[in-house]
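Internal tracking record. Fields below are filled automatically when a chain is submitted to the structure queue. Please do not edit lines marked as system-generated. If the sequence contains nonstandard residues, flag them in the REMARKS field before resubmitting.
Queue: standard
Priority: normal
Entity type: single polypeptide chain
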Amino acid sequence: MSPRARPMAPDDRRAALVTATVPLLVEHGRTVTTKQIADAAGVAEGTIFRVFDSKDDLVTTALEQALDLEPFIAQLQQVDPDQPLAALLLEVVELFQHRFERVFTLMSRMGLVGPPKARRHMEAERERVALILEALAEPHRAELRVPPGHLMHMVRLLTFSGTHPHISDGHPLTAEEIVDTVLHGVLVPASTTQEP
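SYSTEM-GENERATED OUTPUT FOLLOWS
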């Protein structure tokens, strides 16, 4: 007979429950049940209340994990700054779109009209993102009419508004459209519009 698996430590059990809860919040919002969470985590329903004070406590912890910027920061740090600018921006925009889409969906399912009260270090995390983005664009400074940091600020703003389902009126911009608009605008090049 095989030996019984060792029971998980409380911290590990909490982490497993939070991980199982996040996608359920995206799908069901606050209507998710503790039974659904327990089933997804492969535990008995009562196990939840041995490591969390309440369902709300678990939901709040899962929401904080879902909105945590650290995994996104780690992805940005993997972007190669030496690739062509258009390819670099496309990769950055796709990363932002994936995050924004997840956050917008989660907030909608949770009935949130704005992000939850920011943690004390959230502002520092946003500053880290801005610095990483500026460093990514820095090798391309000679190609730009604006400072690298300002380029990335515009990219973030256009990606946010172009991805938000309400701001975009249900017609979100593709990553390619965002990058092309930032780099080339919407006017036909003058050389192709002038008569010979």
